[in-house]
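Recall that a protein's primary structure is simply its ordered list of amino acids. Everything else, from secondary elements to tertiary packing, is in principle encoded there. The following example makes that idea concrete.
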Amino acid sequence: MHSEDVDLLCGVCGKRLESTESLGVHLQSHKGSNCCRVCGKRYKSKTSMTEHMASHAGVKLHCCHVCGKECSRKGDLKIHMRIHTGEKPFCCSYCCKGFTHSGHLKKHVRSHTGERPHQCGVCGRGFLQSTHLKYHLGTHAHKY
């Protein structure tokens, strides 16, 4: 093997392969299995299992034809493509604002409902997003 070659291990069987392409092809041979031998996660479809195993190996099976971004799962590529198409299938029932991802809509709706699901264990203050709570917790650390 040349020093510039890549040395990869299959997460299912431990076989050593020399490139991400050969690993992707090799992972296809494990399509019959429905339980990940790396993390134990179970899958109903062969396709989902193959995509999952590829993600353990860092192999990206799906590529955006517009910008070249690579994704491990077909569903992630579908969501990514919305950047290029402008599609926003998730709409707020309060203000009709559109979102590319359901999780983004869920966070947005909290701005209308007042829901603050992330509570500070020190002072009890609520936050819309966990990242806001993490930042807030830092303010308590500086007081002591």
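The radius of gyration is 21 Å. Strands lie at 8-9, 16-17, 62-63, 70-71, 90-91, 98-99, 118-119, 126-127.
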